[in-house]
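=== RUN LOG ===
request id: a7f3
mode: sequence -> structure
chains: 1
length: 111
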Amino acid sequence: MPYDESLAERMRDALARTKGIQEKKMFGGLCFLLNGNMLVGVWKNSLIARVGADQAQESLREPYIKLMDITGKPMKGWLIIEPAGVADDDLLQDWIKRAKNFVQSLPKKSP
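=== RESULT ===
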């Protein structure tokens, strides 16, 4: 199944002014990296977000959220946010902000 191009475009718009962003096709979808570290992405019709293990556990209490498990093994610190969880741009921005808060704490990777 291809990924949701409209969600990808909304993410491009949301990240347009962020320095250090790269796009890369991964997981059968599209990921956005910040300073070489995976940040957020589109998988099928959902947002994937790297928020760190602690934030991920807390976020599971919210609606439309589940651990990212596309291979049979959950990815630590990653979430899948169903389409209803990013239905408007404010919700999308909030998830991107949460992911940035975590990923900015990681060391930069060389290109």
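=== NOTES ===
The first strand starts at residue 21 and ends at 26.
Residues 52 and 77 are 4 Å apart (CA to CA).
=== END ===
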